[in-house]
Structure formats: C-alpha cells, structure tokens
Amino acid sequence: MDKNKNKNKNISSNITMDKIVSLAKRRGFIFPSSEIYDGFAGSYTYGPYGVELKNNIKNLWWKMFVQNRTDIIGLDGPILLNPKLWQVSGHTEGFNDAMVDCKKCKKRFRADHLVEEITGRDMEGDLEGMSMVIQEKQIKCPECGELDWTEVRNFNMMFTTKMNSIAEPVYLRPETAGAIFIEFKNILDSMRVKVPFGIAQIGKAFRNEIVTSNFIFRLREFEQMEIEYFIEPDSDWESIFMDWLEKQEKFAYNLGIAKEYIKRYEHPKEKLSHYSKKTIDVEYNFPFGFSELFGLANRTDFDLKSHMNASGKSLEYFDQVNNKKYIPHVIEPTFGLDRSILACLCSAYTEEKLEDGDSRVVLKFPKNLAPIKVAVFPLLKNKPELVQKAREIFGELNEYLMCEFDDNGNIGKRYRRQDEIGTPYCVTIDFDSLESDTVTARDRDTMKQERVKVAELTAYLKTNIGI
Ligand code: GAP
After folding, report:
1. How many Å lie between the centroid of ligand 1 and the Cα of residue 335?
2. How far apart are CA 249 and CA 259, in angstroms?
3. CA–CA separation, 252 vs 246, rounded Å?
4. Which one, of 323, 76, 45, lies nearest residue 179 by Cα?
5. Distance between CA atoms of 440 and 431, rounded to whole angstroms?
6. Measured on CA atoms in the order 219, 220, 223, 228, is the torsion positive or negative?
7. Rounded to 5 degrees, what are φ and ψ at 86?
8. Using one digit for the tens of pLDDT, what is the confidence trace for 296-339?
9. d(CA 462, CA 253)
10. What mean pLDDT is predicted for residues 228-248?
11. Ligand 1 nearest atom to the CA of residue 216, by list position
C-alpha cells in the first residue's frame, strides 16, 4: 500500500502548451507529421495512445447522442460531394477569412487577428475598416517587423481538388453537416423517423486556414462530431436550444473538464454565420485562454429550403398526426473532436509532488477514456513462473480491456510510465500470486494497492473503470 496516498500535492496550476505538446510527442499521443521531411505546417499524426484516446472520445459521444437516444440516428457521408451543395449552402460565396500579406517577407496573416491583438476590437467582416486600422495604428509584420501590407481581402477557406471526370473544381467538405442535409430525403424515405429527430455524423472536415495555431486547436484537416436536430417550425426552439447547450456542457464534463473551465459565448447578431439565427459557443479555458470548444446554432430552415429550391426535390416532412407538411427547422450542436482531445489532455495533466520528495506527472483522464486501461507487470523479469502467470492474466484481461504488458525496469519506474499515459490500473503478479491466486491492483489517482482474486479481477477492473 502506498503511504503517500492523501498527502500528495498537485503542483500543476500553470500548465503550459509546451508541456502538453512535449508529453504528447514523448509518450506517443500526437506527433508533428512529416518530420523526416522537415515537417508540414499544422499537420499532426495521432500516435498509438492518441488514436485510442480519440476512439474512446468518439465512442463516448456516439453512446451519449446516438446509442442512448431513440430520436437520433447515425450517418457517414463522403468527404467529396457534389460541388452544387457548397454553392447552395453559401460556402463558395461566403465562407471566407480576411487575409493580409506582408509585401516584404511574403508572410500571410489573418487580418482580423492582427487588428484584434493590437486594438482589442473584433472587426471581422469589415475589410476596408481593417486596412485603415492597420495603417492608422502602424501595425507591423509580426514576422519581419516591416510596415508594408497589401490591402485586406477575403480568402475562401474551402480546399479545392480536381476530379478527372468533371471540369469544375471539387471541394473537400468544410463541415460534415452538408452531407446530412442532402441525405434528408433518403432518411425520411428509409427510416420511420418523426420530428423532432436528429442525424449524427463523425468525420473529417477541411479548412484552408491562413494560419494554424496552438497545436491541434486550429488545423486545416480536423474531425467534427455534428448533429442536425430537426424540429417543427412553430416549436419552442429556444428551450430545445438551451437543452442542447446543457447537453454539450455535460459532454465536456464527461471529458474530465471542471465546471469553472467552461463558459458560454453568444455571437453578436451582426457576427452570425450566414445560416444562423442564434449561435452560442461553449468555450474551454485552454492554457492560451478561453476559446471555442463546441458550437450551437439555430440554422432555421436555411439549408433544407435552399437545397429544395436548388434541386427541385421536395425536402418537406409530412406530419401524419396533424396532417400538415412543412420544412423542419434545425438546431445544430457541433463538437470539434481534436479540440475535445486537447481539452481532455489539458484537464487530465497533473504534476504532483509526493510526500517522499519524489514527483510524478500523471494524466488523470476519466478512467473510461484512458488509452490503456490496465498495465500488467510480473514483479521480476527474471522469474519465469511470475512472467508466465503475468502473461496468462494479461491474455485474459486483454480480451475485455485495452492492456499493456511491461516487465522493463523496477516497479516504481513502470508505475511512473503508466501514470504519464493515464493508465487507471496497474496489476502486479508477485510471489503471493503463485500461492494465493491473487494480484495487487494499484489505482492511478490514489496510488493505493488492493489485493484482488484473479477470478474476480476482470469484474473488479471493469466496475472501477466504469465500462
Ligand atoms: N457545422 C457548423 C460548423 O462547422 P464551426 O463553429 O465552424 O461550425 C464546429 O465548427 C467545430 O469544429 C468548432 O466548434 C471547433 O470545435 C471545430 N473546428 C472548427 N474549425 C476548426 C479548425 N480549424 N481546427 C480544429 N477544429 C476546428
């Protein structure tokens, strides 16, 4: 049993992005991609533990919003879609960021970010105004220090690609939502859905961001988890909206985020996206400050109506009970998967000073989200009877839980390695195990050890991990 259990001091009050980025790389969560070719800006690879964490978060989301509900069904649409979709949805015309180029060093910047950093003013959308402020305030190039800018102009954020069979460019989808709207008719025709109901999708989205930033916070290729929730046009949309906001916050808490790290930000009317009547972001207090984690919008009937008009196909819903036809309105809760992973890592990151003077870094993930659930150790590597029993137990547990076998170094070092990747339980096979068919199970957070019968081990671990 660990004597230090309640006397350890959390000393991680100032978590920095550097610490998160370094741990993520060192311990196989997230690598900068293409490193052997000197990297590729803003692109990352999820390593072996990162992909487990990512899948666990996706599964949690799917369970909460699809499996556990009778009013939401899933979908998995393509990334390449008919380009008409993006004309009709307004993305080819209006999905823009403001950019400005430094004529000296040729670097490109988000004009609204430059202006906001210096003046604190959010001037998004006002191209002329931003050009004037840059000159008036003599805002210099952050890269080379010169004051020699182009005019501020719009830059469409969609990636284009070429399909051999058609002449016009094809887009990589900038949001997963589009595929949901254009399958609305197929869903009505094939499933017995009744409004209100939702369609959920998890998948990649692509945005040609002028600048990527803050590790996996702002990427060009990222994943979204989105729901389009269809409601009656006359329903009390405000209460449905607020209910969704609470559900989004609950999902954040299930990622291990503390309540005081979450706040709401309502977009002012003049800054709303072209499709939205009301938008509230759920923001998380990242090490670089409060920033958008999830979004919630009332998209009204903008998308279905536009697609119905452009395609000439009816996207109306027939309400048999009230014998009426209408185009449903849509409440859209949207969740960034990469931002969820970053928030989950930041919330879990803990540095502790132990009572014996030692210290440890531990990722205190919610146990059900940890990439590795159980590590199995033989006490000594050079005792074949311990190694054989440990291998047998590892084989049994691995059927039900993601496990790791480790016989390298002393037990203390093995514990620290598992703490750093957030493994909730370490199971050690010692000499008593051979006599009594029991093992020790050590809890990541309390560092307390308990003796558990091998016959009861799987159930013990599953119950304590919550799966
Ligand atoms: N369908 C609505 C929509 O796409 P959004 O606010 O533009 O709304 C939804 O994006 C979520 O996707 C955001 O809340 C954020 O978590 C994530 N996201 C947006 N742009 C991103 C980027 N460049 N990198 C990583 N995640 C991003």
Report:
1. 7
2. 9
3. 10
4. 76
5. 11
6. positive
7. -80, -25
8. 999 999 999 999 999 999 999 999 999 999 999 999 999 999 99
9. 21
10. 98
11. 25
